[in-house]
UniProtKB/TrEMBL annotation:
Lineage of the organism: Eukaryota, Metazoa, Chordata, Craniata, Vertebrata
Binding partners and assembly: Homotrimer. Interacts with FBN1, fibronectin and integrins ITGA1/ITGB1 and ITGA2/ITGB1. Integrin ITGA1/ITGB1 binds to a unique site within COL16A1 located close to its C-terminal end between collagenous domains COL1-COL3.
SMART domains documented for this protein: TSPN
Cited PANTHER family: COLLAGEN
Organism this protein belongs to: Carassius auratus
Electron transport found in the keyword field: no
UniProt xrefs under Pfam families: Collagen
Bias type Basic and acidic residues, positions: 317-326
This protein's name: Collagen alpha-1(XVI) chain
Amino acid sequence: MFSRGPLSCAKDDMIHCLRWTVFLWIVNTIPFTSGMTVNERIENKDHTCPPMKLEDKWDTNVNIHREFTGFDLAEKFLLRKGTVTDNRLLLRLGSKPLFKPTESVFPNGISHEYSIIATFRLRKTTKKDRWFVLQIFDQDGDTQVSLIVDGAKKTVEFLAQGFLRNSLLYVFKNRDLHALFDRQFHKLGVSVESNAVSIYLDCKLIERQVTAERSGMNVSGRTFITTRVEDGRPVDIELQEILIFCDARIADLDRCCDSPGVTCEPVVTHNPTAAPMVTGYLHRMLSMPAQLPTDQCHCPTLKGDQGLPGLAGHSGQKGDKGDMGLKGDPGPQGLPGLKGDKGEPGLPGLGTLSVEQQAQKGDQGPPGIPGERGDAGLPGQPGAPGKEGKRVSKPKQVAACVGWIHVAYMYL
């Protein structure tokens, strides 16, 4: 008897192994499919989320032909519709705190995995506020779930209650979240899975964090929406919608087709055809005549050639302009400058004389007009006694008296 070659042996073993693989796959698939059907029935029976009445845009955004379940919080909190801005119908938040008993908002709680979708625009006066998109307290006042937007730090925070009633806080501070605070309309999406939380901005995944085990929800408490952390009053934002879907995939499947400048092509879905293809292939495999080996042979494993390197990936898109950096420290003192040229001589000064002294002497003026004769003056004081005169003879005295009389007569 001739021994078979390694190629013939390898072919026979491959066919033999493939038959057993297909057979085991069929055996394991049938009960799994049946079990999945049973599980779906149980899930539908115990489902805690009611069907939602949404606009037709959500059928295009998510592009899945199924009934949405969850909660429209604007409807639950009786928010009235206000003005239309940028072709968006906005909701009025009012001035009173927005809270309700949790049992009236979520009568049977919410599913363990869910999505939070909120579309809003911050105002200039509130873009740095810290506020709750959603906050759910239990009956003891402890936070069970909260979604916080922090404008000062440009972060988004998700807090949940752990299995041991401990707080599980996850802070998302990716730079791509900074666009949320540019005072334009944005859609914030949060996907809460059993072991992870993901943040989406305008239908783009920003960051994903693995979480610890979370506890179930206690409906014996209160629920708040769009509330400032500082004083518990409604935050001043332009709110378009705030929804909770009982499906963690909605935040990931949302395509934002209703956003300005975004067009979405309808995705054509086909029914799965894997089972008929495998069944037909199995029928052909089983109809082949069995070629059992007449003797045992151990076929060596042949190592294949190394494959060709893959094609280079596409270059990434240009990132957004970064924020202005911090002010730098003062630089070192500069070197002394070069000696300058000699200046031009200045104008002659006026000296240090006063204004009156600096004035020039004028010409002599003309003589004045003679004044009028004045009144007679007052009699003067008696004069000092004169010196004793010399004695004269009597004839000389007579002559002197006659002279004085003559003088007096002349003046009279």
